[in-house]
């Protein structure tokens, strides 16, 4: 099992180092190789995604990614900015399925802005299609309107579109993920208004007939946005398109209240994946040794589950994380009175002990 380790910028190097220690502590034959990405790669090689890094990522079974970006690169031309490395990896590896769990740990219930009873025990998985929809649909651009409400006026337009294979493959990811959980999928659409999402709904329903053991329901996106804050625990796996998924996955993430706890995975058709925390490179706290490494450690657990087929090892890591929280250990971002504040290194060491 070969893993490309790409720590990136800011707190990326600090948090990935802790996740690597955790992976090394498992009794698994993991081959890990590290490479530069993002701003760090730009500084050394003049490009955020150098050929050698891309080659390593392509040849690996999975990529463990920290975070990229720093405000000091904001003036670079777009193609050379650190964030382009993520887009390049997604494109080159064909990563079309983004998986973001939103789990609310018992001990962190107070961090949410919702009432404890609404989110205690929350465990949902948002699956977002990542390479299609209105974000990538062609044509797009600016022009002079030839029709519409204001002919002759300047206008801008994008194209929302999905092909059958694009919807089928993300639907399969959702149904298969549901089988590893509690066999329920909610497909989120806007079929009442959008042709694209009536088609989405029809195709997801067809794919669903291949999974008679998984219960499928459909929900309009506006209702889903409401239900996520009204009764989030009624969801299990939520599957949706790129635009709706972008918004709903951030909404779901905030239900848990702690960005430093949330892992994510982006997968391709052969289960090769890129695993990263949902947060960014946090330049404001980089180098201070206070970043929370748990989202990255939990991303490593997702990597074991979805790309390396090591469910037992994934569960061991998740149980270790729960155990350190139960011991009252907290990095600064999740600290509350009555708990013990620890550094990035101490949190990593505590997870190792719990393992
Ligand atoms: P951010 O997620 O980096 O930080 C937001 C806030 O959360 C900051 O106050 C930060 O200190 C805190 N935070 C984030 N992760 C934390 C952790 N693990 N432990 C403790 N506190 C944590 O978002 P931002 O500040 O908007 O962006 C900073 C940089 O990160 C930008 O250059 C942006 O482009 C980049 N970014 C990268 C990714 C990625 O690599 N996937 C994602 C988002 C943002």
Can you describe this structure?
This protein has 355 residues and is of the alpha/beta class. The protein has 2 domains: 1-96 and 271-355, 3-Layer(aba) Sandwich (Isopropylmalate Dehydrogenase), CATH 3.40.718.10; 101-134 and 163-267, Isopropylmalate Dehydrogenase (3-Layer(aba) Sandwich). It is 39% helix and 19% strand. The chain is built from 12 helices and 14 strands. It has helices at residues 12-25, 39-45, 51-59, 84-93, 116-119, 164-179, 195-208, 221-230, 242-256, 294-306, 311-326, 344-354; strands spanning 2-8, 31-34, 62-67, 97-103, 123-129, 141-144, 154-157, 184-189, 215-220, 237-240, 263-267, 273-277, 329-330, 340-341. The chain has a 10-stranded mixed β-sheet with strand order 2-1-3-12-11-4-5-10-8-9, sandwiched between helices. Strands 6-7 form a two-stranded antiparallel sheet. A two-stranded parallel ribbon has the order 13-14. Strand 8, helix 7 (195-208) and strand 9 (215-220) form a beta-alpha-beta unit. 47% of the residues are buried. Nicotinamide-adenine-dinucleotide binds next to loops. Nicotinamide-adenine-dinucleotide binds at residues 11, 15, 67-70, 83, 86, 259-260, 276, 279-285, 291-292, 295, 333.
């Amino acid at each position: 099992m070969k893993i490309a380790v790409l720590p990136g910028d800011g707190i990326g190097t600090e948090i990935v180092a802790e996740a690597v220690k955790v992976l090394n502590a498992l009794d698994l034959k993991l081959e890990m190789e590290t490479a530069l990405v993002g701003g760090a790669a730009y500084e050394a090689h003049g490009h955020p995604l150098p050929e050698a890094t891309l080659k390593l990522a392509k040849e690996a079974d999975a990529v463990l990614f920290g975070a990229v970006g720093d405000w000091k690169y904001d003036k670079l031309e777009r193609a050379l900015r650190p964030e382009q490395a993520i887009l390049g990896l997604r494109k080159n590896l064909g990563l079309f399925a983004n998986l973001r769990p939103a789990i609310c740990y018992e001990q962190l219930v107070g961090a949410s802005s919702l009432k404890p009873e609404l989110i205690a025990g929350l465990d949902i998985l948002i699956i977002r299609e990542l390479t299609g929809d209105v974000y990538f649909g062609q044509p797009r651009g600016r022009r002079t309107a030839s029709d519409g409400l204001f002919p002759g006026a300047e206008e801008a337009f994008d194209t929302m579109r999905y092909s059958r294979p694009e919807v089928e493959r993300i639907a399969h990811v959702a149904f298969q993920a549901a089988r590893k959980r509690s066999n329920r999928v909610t497909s989120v659409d806007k079929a009442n208004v959008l042709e694209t999402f009536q088609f989405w709904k029809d195709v997801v329903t067809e794919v669903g007939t291949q999974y008679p053991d998984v219960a499928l329901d459909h929900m309009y996106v506006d209702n889903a946005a409401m239900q996520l804050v009204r009764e989030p625990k009624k969801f299990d796996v939520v599957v949706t398109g790129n635009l709706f998924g972008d918004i709903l996955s951030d909404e779901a993430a905030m239900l848990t209240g702690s960005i430093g706890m949330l892992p994510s995975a982006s997968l391709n058709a052969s289960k090769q994946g890129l695993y990263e925390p949902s947060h960014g490179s946090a330049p404001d706290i980089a180098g201070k040794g206070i970043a929370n490494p748990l989202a990255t450690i939990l991303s490593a657990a997702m990597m074991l589950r979805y790309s390396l087929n090591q469910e037992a090892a994934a569960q061991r890591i998740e149980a270790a994380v729960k155990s350190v929280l139960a011991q009252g250990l907290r990095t600064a971002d999740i600290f509350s009175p009555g708990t013990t504040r620890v550094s990035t290194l101490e949190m990593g060491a505590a997870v190792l002990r719990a393992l």
